[in-house]
Design a protein that fits this description.
- The protein has one domain.
- The protein is an all-alpha fold.
Length: about 45
């Protein structure tokens, strides 16, 4: 019975583990976009 519960818990956790990579990747993309905007703003500051 314990093995069944452990297996079910692991299967339930799999989508959460996959979301970590997605969230980290989205954060990096947003950060890169922010840096590009900041660079453009600095270039166009008189």
């Amino acid at each position: 019975m314990k093995k069944i519960i452990a297996t079910l818990l692991l299967l339930a956790a799999l989508p959460l583990l996959g979301a970590c990579n997605t969230t980290a990747g989205a954060g990096q993309d947003i950060q890169a976009g922010g840096k590009a905007i900041e660079k453009t703003a600095v270039q166009h500051t008189p």
